[in-house]
Amino acid sequence: MRVFLTGATGYIGSAIVQELLGAGHQVLGLARSEQTAQTLRTTGADAHIGSLDDLDSLRRGAMAADGVIHTAFVHDFAAYAMAGEIDRQAVAALGSALAGSGRPLVITSGITVLTPGRVATEIDAPDSNAPSAPRIPSELLIQSLAGQGVRSSVVRLPPSVHGEGDYAFVPTLIRIARDKGVSAYVGDGSSRWSAVHRLDAARLFRLALEKGTAGGVYHGVSDEGVPVRELAEVIGHHLNIPTTTITSEEATEHFGWISAFFSVDCPASSTLTQQQLDWQPTHATVLADLKQGHYFAA
């Protein structure tokens, strides 16, 4: 299968490139410049010049492929609503190119579109008050496209997609702990984060592309829910600094933009995903990954 992949040079997308190539697929990766295009070509993928806000380029890429995986996203949490709208427009453009073809379109969403405080499952509907609410319109669009002859599905990822090369939530927590001289958690630290290794996530995207059903929702979750206190303790141990609690009122000042995610209780199950796609996570858990030390090598 020839697969058009957005976000192909990103942290997760680059792992998907290798997963797809290893399974015998061809990859056409979206590249914003000739420099990133050359990076893609060195991996064995082909490059398609374009960007998320160039909708014509997205449609051309999708029309040239047998299926699409969409992982690119504008990770600007200061303008999250705008990022969500850019994503919705991109999904609409990709879907329009595939309408009536029966070809697969797999997009990315987050576990944090769901109601916090309980173990979320694949059948749970998004919550408009959830931290990642701006991503909900893209999920709803996927359901609509399923009725338009597109084998469209969504992979929800947890707050931590961890592994070597990670530059997202966990490295941000480590940087804050270094800067503050203390590794903190909010309240009693019982809020839970779900997590998955990036290589397990990459395999899930491939399986959703190959076997996913129209309108399918899949959870890329290995760790159902790790208490944030345990994350803070491992970080504190490796940095040789104290671990302490802070109040919810202090969280925004201490953590900045990440406080909205670090304070939320967002455990999730992937039982249905594992059953439906025969997906089994095999790589290290987030705590085991932290204990290996590569997060603290800088």
Q: Can you offer a commentary on this structure?
A:
The chain has 298 residues and is of the alpha/beta class. It has 2 domains: 2-160 and 195-222, 3-Layer(aba) Sandwich (Rossmann fold); 165-194 and 224-269 and 283-296, UDP-galactose 4-epimerase, domain 1, CATH 3.90.25. It has helices at residues 11-22, 34-43, 55-63, 80-98, 136-146, 169-180, 198-211, 228-239, 248-255, 259-262, 271-277, 286-291; strands at residues 2-6, 26-31, 46-49, 67-70, 104-110, 151-157, 160-162, 183-186, 192-197, 216-219, 223-227, 243-246. Helix 5 links the parallel strand 5 (104-110) and strand 6 (151-157). Helix 1 crosses helix 7, helix 3 runs parallel beside helix 4 (80-98) and helix 6 (169-180) packs across helix 8 (228-239). It is globular and about 55 Å long. The model has no long low-confidence stretch (mean pLDDT 95).
Name the poorly predicted regions.
none
CATH architecture heading of the largest domain: 3-Layer(aba) Sandwich
Supply the helix-strand structural class.
alpha/beta
Tally of DSSP helical segments: 12
Rg is 19 Å
Order of helices and strands: EHEHEHEHEHEEHEEHEEHEHHHH
CATH class of the largest domain: Alpha Beta
Task: Determine the strand fraction and express it as a percent band.
Answer: 15-25%
Classify the helix fraction into a percent range.
40-55%
Indicate the multimeric state.
single chain
CATH topology of the largest domain: Rossmann fold
Give the full name of the CATH homologous superfamily of the largest domain.
NAD(P)-binding Rossmann-like Domain
